[in-house]
Amino acid sequence: MLALIAATSFETRLLRTRLQKSDPLPGRFPLFHGQLDGQEILLTHSGVGKANAAACTAILLSHRKPRALLNLGCAGAYPDCGLRIGDLALADGDILADEGSDSPAGFLGMEELGLPLLRRPEGDLFNRMPTDPELFRNAESLLRAWASEQDIGFATGPFASVSTCTGTDQQGRQRQQGGAICENMEGAAIALTAARFGCPLLELRGISNLAARRDPDQWDIPAACRNAERAILHLLRHWPRS
Ligand SMILES: O=C(O)c1cccc(C(=O)CC[C@H]2O[C@@H](n3cnc4c(=O)[nH]cnc43)[C@H](O)[C@@H]2O)c1
């Protein structure tokens, strides 16, 4: 079984047309189940933000044992990453961009503070949370070809998870200096929790807006969500059968 997690119901509209509603998970997280392209699927909505995302992932993985977790949804692209609205981004990691301390010398991350967020034999996790390298490699080659056929832009790189969406051009330029290509509000919390449970994670998002001056007239959340969902369906068609 594979599990899908998105923040909101508008990010899973297409997928849910082919799934049935189940009893909710503890904590009032909705649950859907069914088959998508021959794969047994569970789908849940965490709600927006890192607190919801971590709680939902922990409860899902405490009650179900999926082979992998796929995080999908929409995201804001940083100005110099080359992504446009409707394009797709695949994460090779997700950075908790707000966790740390401000100082007269600038932002100090968790490593500089000497505070790991997770201690593991394979290496402590500070701000940058991993996605699964093998899932990432397979998805990258499948999606690069598919996106090109569909005339959809595609990029890979680290994502940033933030508590506050970018609202000015200056903030977008400043945030991209952390190395991320786009920002969201859940991915790194899902990745940290998946790492705690040893569940392989993939994160794929459609670009709904630029992480720049707030201008909702320019956003296209439906196009971003639809392309991310179509890309997930493409991955599921090629996913190894268990
Ligand atoms: O500000 C509003 O009025 C508003 C109304 C509907 C949706 C939003 C969102 O910002 C969506 C947040 C949701 O989508 C992800 N997301 C999408 N774009 C961004 C972004 O530029 N920065 C951070 N997160 C973004 C995020 O993961 C949330 O789940 C706002």
UniProtKB/TrEMBL annotation:
Protein name: Futalosine hydrolase
Reactions listed under catalytic activity: futalosine + H2O = dehypoxanthine futalosine + hypoxanthine
GO cellular component term of the entry, any: cytosol
HAMAP family (UniProt xref): MqnB
GO biological process, one term: menaquinone biosynthetic process
Protein family according to the UniProt entry: Belongs to the PNP/UDP phosphorylase family. Futalosine hydrolase subfamily.
Organism lineage: Bacteria, Pseudomonadati, Thermodesulfobacteriota, Desulfuromonadia, Desulfuromonadales
Organism for this UniProt entry: Geothermobacter hydrogeniphilus
GO MF terms held by the record: adenosylhomocysteine nucleosidase activity; methylthioadenosine nucleosidase activity
Enzyme Commission number(s): 3.2.2.26
Domain Nucleoside phosphorylase: 3-235
Keyword Transmembrane: no
Catalytic class of the enzyme: hydrolase
Pathway field: Quinol/quinone metabolism; menaquinone biosynthesis
Domain of life of the source: Bacteria
Function of the molecule: Catalyzes the hydrolysis of futalosine (FL) to dehypoxanthine futalosine (DHFL) and hypoxanthine, a step in the biosynthesis of menaquinone (MK, vitamin K2).
Keywords (A to Z) from UniProt: Hydrolase, Menaquinone biosynthesis
